[in-house]
Amino acid sequence: MSEPKTPCNCASNGDMNRRNFLRTSGVLATGIAALAASLAPLRELSDFSSTEEFLQKHYKELSKDDMEKVLARITREVEKQYGVRPHVRDYKPMDGVEFVYCLNLTRCIGCRKCVHACVAENNQSREPEIQYIRVLKMPHGSMEMEKGDHNYAPDQVPEKGFFYMPVQCQQCKNAPCVKVCPTKATWTEPDGITVIDYDWCIGCRYCEAACPYFARRFNWTKPKIPKDRLNPNMSYLGNRPRKQGVMEKCHFCIQRTRAGRYPACLEVCPAGARKFGNILDPESEVSYIMRTKRVFIQLKEELGTSPRFFYYFDV
Amino acid sequence: MDRNKTNLVLAGVALAFLALVFVFGRDLPGRAIAQTPPIPLVDLKFVDPAPTRVSIAENLRKGGDPSDYDCYVCHERNKPIKLNINTNGDIVVPSEHKDIVMAHGGHKRNDNCFNCHDENNLDQLQTRDGRHVKLTERSPLSTPQLCGSCHGPTYRDWEAGVHGRTSGYWNRSMGDISRLSCVSCHNPHSPKFQGREPAPGPHRLHPAAQAPAPASEGKVE
Question: How far is A55 from chain B (nearest CA, A)?
């Protein structure tokens, strides 16, 4: 190969002959093709976010017209993705309403029906699995969360010597998750529901770390929901399908409760352990419980989060 | 010589990219996920909000045949029932009524048929203060009054919507609340709420770790 009459062939491009050209371009072409192929997984991100969504304003800055456009976009996107035409609305809080949830630990039998009714109502991902409610099996006479077991699988519940404690978002008055959110994508609404704007969330998971109740869930991958299990009654801040990389959590079934109905977990509870209502209405069930029942537990009360979710015992 | 070196480096880079193509082509990162078995969809019975029992009143409201509950098809009118009591003092349930499990209260104070049934009119029930309720009464409000004549505090809670199941609307101005009567959940002869099969728990990423935890210790998450 060496040609002594050429003083230097290192940096000179002048002596490009056919053989060198073919060799270099062959290597280059292979390299570029390989690079392109190795970046192929990035192509799957193309449906990650639309320009319209990218330019969308914060929920609180959206005018009525803006919101209509946003809801139309969500309807379009859900229909394209699932082939089901959803009914997406933006439910607003009612005046003079503050929601409170009461759960009777004496009645709960630990059947986990609430968990799955919640998944069905709120379009949580089935694969990977996302659930808002965790039911802890706790030994009698203890409120130590460390003794809780959420993987119990006996033939029959309740088991002797245990009580069951479902834990979900406690809708705190002094919510740590709201304080840590760097983008203000989560906030507490006037009716007491802490909501998430899924289009504003950047997925930093600070809120997940801040929550003392393990109430927040992160969409690590694109959520999968079978078409026939999709609940078409959706709300912007509630159960519209989420995308990869955002947080979600219990929102007291905002699409039901702001329309005056009970949450899904309450309606499915076979033991009637779950009670929900407006604490500002003295006639409501929750007001009755606050007045007459004996023991209230705000979970991890000492943290000062002041939950709107109360546990109580009865006879 | 340097050109050869450059070519070598270029070839090396190209090879590295080719290796990447090979990795992505085989979808190795994806394959690790695919190896875990798919999470089965939950049985729809676990999201069904139907009550645990069908009471007589509900059965009749849904078009059930009231003659199913006619006691005098078998029993004779104006003929007192003779209870068969064994040596322990327990009532022996006749074979015609063998579906009845006598377990109303664990203390054997309320295992007498005629605490609730009217011995003179078998198609009626009687409250503790002597009021009568027809067995085939369709109104869901009749049974709570009967049960409430003994279970006062529970009746009070039920009236307030706090004992038992509710569905419908918490906001009464927007819609109706639907209530259930006592016997939609409790069997009057053995009212203790029955245990049931729990719905599947949270799926584990590593099934190998699914060894059963010692029940007495509890399992730390």
Answer: 32
Under a CB-based contact definition with an 8 Å cutoff, are residues A164 and A157 in contact? Answer: yes
Count the domains in chain B. Answer: 1
Rounded mean pLDDT of B75-96?
A: 85
Is B32 contained in some domain? no
Please name the residues in contact with A197: beta carbons below 8 A apart, sequence gap of 6 or more. A58, A59, A185, A186, A236, A237
A135-184 tens-digit pLDDT: 999 999 888 888 999 999 999 999 999 999 999 999 999 999 999 999 99
- Reported as a single tens digit per residue, the pLDDT across B178-190 is 888 899 999 999 8
Q: Is residue B34 part of a domain?
A: no
Query: In chain A, whose CA is at the least distance from the CA of B50?
Result: A268
Convert the pLDDT of each residue in A94-137 to its tens digit: 999 999 999 999 999 999 999 999 999 999 999 889 999 999 99
A236 lies in some domain: yes
Q: Please judge whether A116 and B199 are an interchain contact, meaning their C-beta atoms are less than 8 angstroms apart.
A: yes
pLDDT on residue B86: 85
Å between A179 CA and nearest CA of chain B: 26
**Minimum CA–CA partner of B6 in chain A:** A10
- Largest Cα separation within chain B, whole Å, is 121
Q: Give the span between the Cα atoms of B55 and B180, in whole angstroms.
A: 10
Q: How many domains does chain A have?
A: 1
Contacts of B197 in chain A (CB under 8 A): 111, 155-157
**Nearest 5 degrees, angle CA A233-CA A238-CA A244?**
105
Whether A33 maps to a domain, the answer reads: no
CA-based nearest residue to B125, from B139, B141, B114: B114
Is A64 part of a structural domain of the chain?
no
> Residue B54: inside a domain, yes or no?
yes
- What is the nearest CA distance from B80 to chain A, expressed in angstroms? 38
Q: Is residue A39 part of a domain?
A: no
